[in-house]
Amino acid sequence: MFVEVLKCLKTLKKIKEEVSKMNEVKPGVKTTEFYITIAFKILAIILIITQQVKPEIALIITGILDGFYVSGRTWVKKTKTTIDDKIIEEIGKILKKNK
Which partner from 15, 33, 50, 83 sits 20 to 30 angstroms from 75, CA to CA? Predict the structure, then answer.
């Protein structure tokens, strides 16, 4: 029985390692949210320099656009994706190997 418990713990450790690899968080500068925020700020600067809109309005507009984008990406990341299927598939492989 002790050996079986050790096998189960070893399998759980492998599963945890695989899931951790798949769920690594990227540094901020490697995310689309970072670059979209920069792009919106550049857009605001261009609108202000060309005097197409008042500075306050340009910042409000780009702030709203940025907020919508980040909120949308967060919602997408929180919903079920193909990575969930990949995690389940990897867990299945590990469990089959350890039978």
Answer: 15
Token pair of 82, please?
């193909």
Residue 72, both tokens = 């949308």
Amino acid type, 54: K
Q: Could you count the other beta carbons within 10 Å of the beta carbon of residue 62?
A: 19
pLDDT per residue as tens digits for the range 36-94: 888 888 888 888 899 888 888 888 888 888 888 878 877 777 766 666 677 777 777 77
Q: State how far the Cα of 85 lies from the Cα of 40, in Å rounded to an integer.
A: 34
How confident is the model over 49-61, as pLDDT tens digits?
998 888 888 888 8
Q: Distance of CA 71 to CAs 26, 67, 78, 80, Å?
A: 17, 6, 11, 16
